[in-house]
C-alpha cells in the first residue's frame, strides 16, 4: 500500500485526489511520480502552485488490475445482493459497475488522509475521484464548478477537474486544467462556497 507524502503545512490549502497509483508509483512507493504525476507537477508550476504545500493522494492506494477501476467492480445484480446482505450503500462507479465491498476500505483510508491534512478544498482529478467525493463519475458535467462533497469526506468544498492523464489523449485541455488549478488555489483562500 502506498501512502502520500504529507503536505508542508497542516491544515493544507488543497488536497488533489486522483484514481490510483500506476506502475512507477507502485515501484517507487509514492503517489504521483509517474507520467501523470510529472504532468501534474508541470500543470501546478504553470498555475504557480507549490506541490509541497498540498496533499496529493489517490482514491485507491494499490494499483488497479489492468489500471482500470472496472476490474474491482461487480454488477448491479451483485450490488443488490451486497445491499441486502450487508447494507452496501455506495453509488455506482460507472453505469452498472459497483465497487466490490472488499475494496471499500480504500475510501475509509482516503477519509483518514483528508482528515489528517484538513484541506480547505478538494480537487478530484477525473471521474473516479469525483465518484469517491460526490457519488458520480460524470467529470465533464462537474468540471470547474465549486460544490460541496457528499461522499467519503462530506461537506468540504471541492472543484473537480480532469485527470492529468487525460491530456495524453487530448492536449488541447492543458489550458483548461491550468485554469481549474488557478481557480482551486483562489477558492482555497476561503472555506465556504461563494456563488
Architecture blueprint of SSEs:
Blueprint: E1 14-18, H1 23-28, H2 35-46, E2 55-58, E3 73-74, H3 76-86, E4 98-99, H4 105-117, E5 121-124, H5 127-134, H6 139-142, E6 147-148, E7 157-158, H7 174-187
Parallel strand pairs: 1-2, 1-5, 5-7
Antiparallel strand pairs: 3-4, 6-7
Question: What does this protein structure show overall?
Answer:
The protein has 195 residues and is α/β, with parallel strands linked by helices. The protein is built from 7 helices and 7 strands. The strands form 2 sheets. Strands 2-1-5-7-6 form a 5-stranded mixed β-sheet, sandwiched between helices. It has a two-stranded antiparallel sheet with strand order 3-4. The radius of gyration is 16 Å and the shape is globular. The chain starts with 13 loop residues before the first strand and ends in an 8-residue tail after the last helix. The model has no long low-confidence stretch (mean pLDDT 96).
Radius of gyration: 16 Å
Can you write the helix and strand succession as a string? EHHEEHEHEHHEEH
DSSP, total strands: 7
How are the strands of the largest sheet arranged? 2-1-5-7-6
Strand content: 5-15%
Quote the distance from N terminus to C terminus: 39 Å
By oligomeric state, this entry counts as single chain
The chain-level mean pLDDT equals 96
Shape: globular
- Percent of residues in helical segments? 25-40%
Tell me the number of helical segments per DSSP (H or I, 4 or more residues long): 7
Structure in a nutshell:
The chain is an alpha/beta fold and 195 residues long.
